[in-house]
Amino acid sequence: MEQAKRVIALGFFDGVHLGHAALLRRVAERAEELGAVPAAVTFDGHPENVISGQVRVPLINSPADRGGLMERLYGIREVITAHFDRAMMRMDWRDFVTEYLVREHGAVHLVAGHDFRFGYRGEGTPQRLQSLCGELGLGCDIVPRVELDGVTVSSTHIRALIAQGEMEEAVRFLGHPHILSGPVVHGAELGRTLGTPTANLALPEGVLSPAFGVYACKVILPDGAERPAVANVGVRPTVSDANTVSVEPWILDFDGGLYGQTIRLEFYKQLRPERKFASVEELRAAILENAAQTRAYFTEIKR
Question: How far, in Å, CA of 84 to CA of 19, rounded?
Answer without folding.
Answer: 22
